[in-house]
Design brief:
alpha/beta, TIM Barrel, 8-stranded parallel barrel, two-stranded parallel sheet, 13 helices, 10 strands, 34% helix
Length: 357
């Protein structure tokens, strides 16, 4: 049986000290130009000190028009490099491995904030989004690859490509609406093409010790369970990934499609991994939850809300099999003591009914 404390060696680069990862969490703490703030540095470095084997940043935009919210971290320009370099060094000093999550919001970007029209795989008037040309798709793929090269230059151990939650790369996977006829839409193999070009491009452009992860939604956002499973299978079969993170919202959830038996996690843990690690995320708030994920066949457990409530969730879960997060809601000063900055507290208070007292 695997233990949370087991070290792991991905196919590329250095080993991780344990099987617990900090999930990429929106925290709205970056400066308005996408550069790193002291609060965001403190938030992430505290999780490194708190024992996580892998620490992943929030979604960092790779293209100026792909920014989704004010306070989002950027990796779209060399102007972002000084802060990213500072962050990579701070994380390395804690003993954690580090990754930048690479993100483009597509039609879910904030056009008013960015001052440019939103782009998407198809015209979407409801989102004021225009369809990318084929050349535009090529440029977006290049932006993801260039951002990964920047992360490597900054000193991060790797990147995680955001292909989940209905953002741009996930929008290409949407079988309801992506009917492009240029090889990037229609059949699933074409809808996966942009994602495949991003991950293979990153692997080709970065060094042999650079780690490459991918986050996918298993269902929803126009993706059926069958297509989610086939997408995961195809991406794993490329052999370029070090890990695949399945964002389940709740690791114990059942498929929305009631024709599928069992839990959603069960439809992904049996896939051939081709040397990659399988990570799962969703409402892991205790050591028992994390061990359950390993027992179900995951290699890594990605922790979100548990890591907000306890910067040292990883160390606590490894040391105490009975560890559970503190009861919610919690006062803002408790979160501040866990290195959650004021902007992040405000974001949590606005978006979560039961988190901030």
């Amino acid at each position: 049986m695997s233990a949370l404390s087991d070290s792991l060696r991905p196919a590329h680069g250095p080993a991780w000290r344990n099987r617990l990862a900090l999930a990429p969490l929106t925290n709205t703490q970056s400066n308005d130009d996408g550069t790193l703030s002291d609060d965001e540095l403190d938030w992430l470095v505290a999780r490194g000190r708190g024992g996580f084997g892998l620490t992943v940043t929030c979604a960092a935009y790779v293209s100026p028009e792909g920014r989704a919210w004010r306070g989002q971290l950027g990796i779209a320009s060399d102007d972002h490099l000084p802060g990213l370099t500072r962050l990579a060094a701070g994380l390395r000093a804690t003993g954690t491995r580090s990754a930048v999550q690479l993100h483009h919001a597509g039609m879910r970007a904030d056009a008013g904030l960015n001052g440019t029209a939103n782009v998407a795989p198809w015209d979407e008037p409801r989102k004021d989004a225009v369809a990318l040309t084929t050349e535009g798709v090529d440029r977006v793929v290049t932006d993801f690859v260039d951002a990964a090269v920047r992360a490597e230059q900054a000193g991060f151990d790797g990147v995680q490509v955001h292909g989940a939650h209905g953002y741009l790369l996930g929008q290409f996977l949407d079988g309801r609406s992506n009917h492009r006829a240029d090889g990037y839409g229609g059949p699933l193999e074409h809808r996966m093409r942009a994602l495949l070009e991003v991950v293979t491009g990153i692997r080709a452009a970065t060094g042999p010790d650079f780690q490459l992860g991918l986050r996918l939604s298993p269902e929803g956002y126009g993706i059926t369970v069958a297509e989610g499973r086939e997408t995961a299978r195809t991406l794993l079969a490329t052999g370029v990934l070090d890990y695949l993170d399945i964002s389940l919202w709740d690791v114990r959830m059942r498929p929305r499609d009631t024709s599928y038996d069992g839990l959603l996690i069960d439809h992904f843990t049996d896939l051939p991994r081709h040397g990659a690690l399988l990570s799962v995320a969703g409402k892991v708030t205790s050591a028992a939850d994390a061990r359950w994920c390993l027992d179900k066949g995951a290699d890594v457990v990605s922790v979100g809300i548990g890591a907000i409530l306890h910067h040292d969730f990883a160390a606590r879960a490894i040391a105490d099999p009975g560890f559970e997060v503190r009861a919610r809601p919690v006062p803002a000063e408790v979160l501040a003591a866990e290195h959650v900055g004021p902007a992040f507290v405000d974001y949590l208070a606005a978006g979560w009914d039961d988190l901030v007292a």
